Amino acid sequence: MIIDTHLHVDFGSPDVPKRFLERNLSDIICISSLIGGAFPNLDHLRAANDSVLRWMDQYPGRVIGFAYVNPRLGEEGVRELERCLDAGMKGVKLWVSVLADDPRVDPLVEVAQNAGAVVLAHAWVKTRGQLPFESRPQNVAHLARRFPQTRFMLAHFGGEWETGAKAARGVPNLFVDTSGSLPEADMVEVLARNVGVERMLFGTDNADFHYCLGKILAANLTDDERERILCGNAQDLFRL
Amino acid sequence: MIIDANTWIGHWPFRRLRLADAAGLGRLLDRTGTGLALVSPLSGPFYRDCLTAVEEMLEDGSWDAARFRPVAVVNPHFPGWEEDLRTMATSMGCVALRLIPNYHDYSLYSDEAVAAAQAATDLGLAVVVTARMHDERSHHPRMYVPPVPMEEVRYLMRMVPEARYLLSQVTFPEASSLLSEMDLVADAGWEMSYKPPAFMVERVVSELGGERLLYGSGAVLQYPESLLLPVQQAPIDDAARQAILGGNARRLFELGD
Which of A122, A157, B82, B131 has the most CB atoms within 10 Å of its CB? Predict the structure, then answer.
């Protein structure tokens, strides 16, 4: 079994998540929609999240929904998140409208915590092109430390994976997904050394499925460790 | 036979690599069942005198002459490059010339770049144009190197149409922008080691034909399995798969049987 913990709908080629499911590349996918871009208003969020709810209806048991949020929307954004979690979503997607450890994120995390939802936070460290409110892995780790009872996911190794591995080290409620980044040699082993296999989650972030799978298969891991990354940890995390 | 059109060995200054030498590459080729690899020196982008980079690569005690085919590197703005290239071609067994203009700080619009492509062609070498060494987002903050503009590559291909070209470490959109140019030169292709998008292999085969796509892994910098698996698993016919995995490289680099 393979669970892809990081995919998007309404983003790039619309076929990617559909084909992942219909070709049985992934057994279960975790999806969010980013309609509205970096600074969505409430209508954008509703459209994004309604799209995810439709996917959940269309593929029952195979799609885990993550609610897109914008911490700048205050109480309205909190209510939208509550709507989504009440409808069965199990995750929260934080992107680039504010840094992950901005205090405006806190009310959303509290809702997630009460619902047992997982908070997936984008992060990257870019030499050029860092977006104004794009979190670095340290921002996500800081947020996770502030809410030790909530489970968080650091997206795509934290982007710059050496930084991500070290930032997530010693933060037991911070999981790391393996999506997005290039398959640089040793990155999987380095992450495993720093955070432990039990906090690693397979993901693709809409990249080629086998391109992303290849590094997990190639890394110096036992079969049990590979299984944990590919599905076991996600099964525990999402209580499947 | 699987042929990896893009591998490197040597020292990479930006992080530790555990399997970075010839023995390490050999292990990666064993792991993936790869029979032949085109190998470039990781010091090639950084040394002024590129001949020393290739010498250093070939002096690795574990150099596997049966499986490794060396790729020459020159900076055509560095004195003596013509003689160095001849040495690499005639005495060192190099099968191609890799140009790395962004790291050597010259433009492919320069007369010297055109001369290098011509010289390589006259020596029977293919020309490998390297768009980048790694993801620009992760460059060292004091060593950001922009990728090579594809318009410069287009110019080079127009100036030396009798050359055989491999576009290396290019994105799929970058390669796609030069598809029409590839039809105007003696032979051309691109290797897929840099961020192939989802389902690229089957899309290329069905829309373009697979004769210009080459399996390249970017090893030792990358896990080769990440590039091999998409080709092995793509829903394409076996002839196309074998072409991508080795036939196209054999043709483009004139590697013989």
Answer: A157
Taking the model in full, what pTM does it have?
Answer: 0.97
State yes or no: pLDDT of A15 exceeds 90. Answer: no
Domain of A156? 3-237
Residue B31 contacts A where some CB pair is shorter than 8 Å: yes
Position A11 confidence tier, pLDDT thresholds 50, 70, 90: confident
Using only C-alpha atoms, chain B has a radius of gyration, in whole angstroms, of 17
What is the pLDDT at residue B256?
A: 86
Contacts of A207 in chain B (CB under 8 A): 195, 197-198
Closest CA to B225 of B27, B5, B31: B31
Q: Measured between CA atoms, how close is B170 to chain A, in angstroms?
A: 13
Burial of B143: CB neighbours in 10 Å, binned 0-12, 13-18, 19+: exposed
pLDDT at position A180 is: 83
The yes-or-no verdict on residue B146 having pLDDT over 90 is yes
Domains and CATH numbers, chain B: 2-252 (3.20.20.140)
Calculate how close chain B gets to A82, using CA atoms only, in Å: 33
Of residues A160, A186, A211, nearest to B226 (C-beta): A211
Contacts of A194 in chain B (CB under 8 A): none
- Complex ipTM, two decimals? 0.95
**Interchain contact B207–A (C-beta under 8 A):** no
The total number of structural domains that make up chain A: 1
> Mean pLDDT across the stretch A57-77?
98
What is the arrangement of strands in the sheet containing A118-121, beginning at the earlier edge strand?
A3-9, A28-33, A63-68, A91-94, A118-121, A151-154, A174-177, A200-201
Nearest to B243 by CA among B233, B235, B251: B251
Distance between B10 CA and the closest CA of chain A, angstroms: 14
Least CB–CB distance from A208: residue in B144, B197, B228: B197
Q: What is the mean pLDDT of residues A108-133?
A: 97
Structure-block tokens of residue A105: 């994120």
pLDDT of the residue at A13: 75
Relative orientation angle of helices B22-32 and B225-233, to the nearest 10 degrees: 20
Nearest CA in chain A to B218: A184
Cα–Cα distance measured from residue A31 to residue A28, given in angstroms and rounded to the nearest whole number = 10
Note the pLDDT of residue A12: 77
Residues of B in contact with A210 (CB under 8 A): 226, 229-230, 232-233
Token pair for B32: 């993936």
Q: Do A218 and B225 touch (CB under 8 A)?
A: yes
